[in-house]
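Lab meeting, item 3. Inverse folding demo.
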């Protein structure tokens, strides 16, 4: 005897889910505008003149070749690094969300309020750990900026 599965229509998003989506979209849009607002040229020179990377690629014989290799390596490896960062950020969000959302439902807290607390908590956690990730990120971007300036000379 074969069972047939009933085809169910997908549930429409609740107003709270729509609001959460709009808030996340607005935060992403604000971040993109904030990044686009920064003068790029001044930022590149600031990154290239960081103390950690100030002397990179100054070798008179191999400095330019090293800069080309660094740019090529960045272009090759950056998609993998971005995927790794996205995975870590998803984990940082999903772990508390998996615990707090069901708990909030049991207590009777609306899901959108719990979602806001989870997102704010995740952002605060990532910001509090900036000593682990900010310095290597700035150094890497500084090396890339220094390599680009070296190649363009």
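The presenter then showed the designed sequence:
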């Amino acid at each position: 005897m074969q069972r047939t599965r009933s085809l169910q229509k997908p549930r429409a998003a609740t107003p709270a889910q729509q609001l959460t989506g709009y808030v996340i979209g607005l935060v992403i849009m604000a971040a993109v505008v904030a990044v686009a607002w920064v003068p790029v040229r001044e930022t590149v020179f600031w990154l290239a003149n960081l103390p950690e990377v100030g002397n990179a690629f100054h070798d008179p014989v191999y400095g330019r070749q090293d800069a080309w290799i660094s740019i090529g390596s960045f272009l090759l490896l950056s998609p993998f690094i971005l995927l790794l960062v996205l995975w870590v950020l998803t984990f940082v969000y999903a772990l508390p969300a998996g615990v707090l959302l069901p708990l909030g439902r049991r207590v009777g807290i609306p899901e959108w309020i719990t979602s806001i607390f989870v997102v704010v908590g995740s952002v605060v956690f990532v910001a509090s750990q900036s000593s682990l990730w900010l310095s290597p990120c700035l150094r890497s971007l500084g090396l890339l900026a220094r390599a680009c300036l070296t190649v363009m000379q």
